[in-house]
Amino acid sequence: MSAIASGELTTPGLGGGLRDIRQSGFLLKLLVRKELKVRYRGSVLGLLWSYVKPGVQFIVFYVALGVFLGLERSARNPEGLSNYAVYLFSGIVLINFFTEALGNAARSIVNNGNLIKKIYLPRELFPVASVWVSAVHFFPQLVVLVIGCVLAGWHPNLIQLLAAVAGFVIVALLATGLGLLFGAANVYFRDSENLVDMLLMVATWASPVMYAWSMVHDKLGAGWFAVYQANPITIGVELFHYAFWFPTTDGSVAMPPNLFSLWLFVGLGVAVAILLLGQFTFRRLEGRFAQEL
């Protein structure tokens, strides 16, 4: 009433963006619980699938790459990676979080179309809830990773623990920003889902999850390697390697140069920029979500 009296009009269907998420914590929790219940409805294993799927994925990659292709260091292959199992699984845990978060966030608006057409609530809640659901699946895998690292002689210092937090934050911000961008675009162009699927396939291999960064440096040279290293997912994976894998080695392995003095800030900057771009695009398009759905 005060807005009408003062002559101010607001555009229907538009909110305050991500700022509204802080005021809608209860709704966010409800959406996360709903997503988890719907996903595991009728499932025998339920949340245990968070252990089974990455476990099978790890075994396949470890046998194919570590054993058959010789990436695991051994007496016959001294040039391989020390504790390749820890190296591999620490990357898989983070990349699985990204792929699940972005894949679900990109479909979240369309999948909740019936709810969006009936009531108004901050639409950013749906992509953000998808990222939170992925985080719920991420932490059981993280527990398994920590147990494996401890068995391998893991003794991290504070900087290494902070590196793990920084890596997760970078990837979470990136997934949220891209989720907002593609979630909004998918309402108007359903081809966005196929584009996201291709992007996720490339992301798994375009970051040093299953191979060493030095292999890329040797093949591409310093110039193109800098382009490769600017990928926030690459930076997040390397921070995870530094946090979980590096302390289990003898310390003779080399991490990417300038990881903390340069690339950490590049990763945060790119992730925040994509988050802002995703929020801007989302707010420009959300006004017609109900009509398009």
UniProtKB/TrEMBL annotation:
Keyword Transmembrane in annotation: yes
Keyword entries, A-Z: Cell inner membrane, Cell membrane, Membrane, Transmembrane, Transmembrane helix, Transport
Signal peptide start-end: none
Homology family: Belongs to the ABC-2 integral membrane protein family.
Transmembrane stretches, start-end: 55-72, 84-106, 126-154, 161-189, 195-213, 225-247, 259-278
Protein name as it appears in the record: Transport permease protein
Organism from which the protein derives: Arthrobacter sedimenti
Pfam families in the cross-refs: ABC2_membrane
Lipid bilayer topology: Multi-pass membrane protein
Record's subcellular location: Cell inner membrane; Cell membrane
